[in-house]
Amino acid sequence: MTIKGFIFDLDGVITDTAEYHYHAWKNLGKKMGIEIDREFNEKLKGISRMDSLERILAYGGKADRYTDSEKELLAADKNGEYVKLIEDITPADLLPGIPQLLLDLKASGIKLALASASKNGPVILDRLGITADFDEIVDPSLLTKGKPDPEIFVKGAQQLGLEASECIGVEDAEAGIAAINGAHMFSVGVGDPESMKEADYRVANTSELSLQKILEAAGE
Ligand SMILES: O=P(O)(O)OC[C@H]1O[C@@H](O)[C@H](O)[C@@H](O)[C@@H]1O
Ligand SMILES: [Mg+2]
Could you say which residues are annotated as the site Important for catalytic activity and assists the phosphoryl transfer reaction to Asp8 by balancing charge and orienting the reacting groups (predicted)? Predict the structure, then answer.
């Protein structure tokens, strides 16, 4: 078999923390007088904390309103709310289909890496009880460019000791699919068809993720 590695996004793929990011940004937006809706939120998925804040400020026409240190405080405010929202995560918060997919990957001897832009990723993996399932975690603080740049997926493959052509990337973000495709990996998209239109293989939600179907679609 050619495929030897799976590289996963976390938020919105393994657990529904994408929803918590949305709520925390929406609340911060309210404090700044910027209305954030679900459509705009699609453009925030996969984007680092500070880059998300910059996008929100530009969207609200307030790009020049805050100093760098004020932006640090705003981002810390959002993260404070987010950290509270993830406090009670347990293994029951794995999205449907993910426990089985992880079992099937293990049984197939396929290695796993995490390619999340979130600095909260490791603590979430711990609370979900799946840290030991991952062979590698890409440290987002060491990246020079965030998604949609391919760097995080390229690093994931390197850390696993694999070629890009031997890996499959799984994402729920437009920026994430662009990053996987840019890394020349087969991309699996979870979400609505419009946001996931660039993915090589698409499912509407995680309960439809099947290792066998993904491998078939990838030509195995
Ligand atoms: O603020 P954190 O936890 O470091 O997360 C950074 C980014 O992580 C990504 O996984 C999320 O899709 C983004 O919404 C989020 O902004
Ligand atoms: Mg995501």
Answer: 116, 147
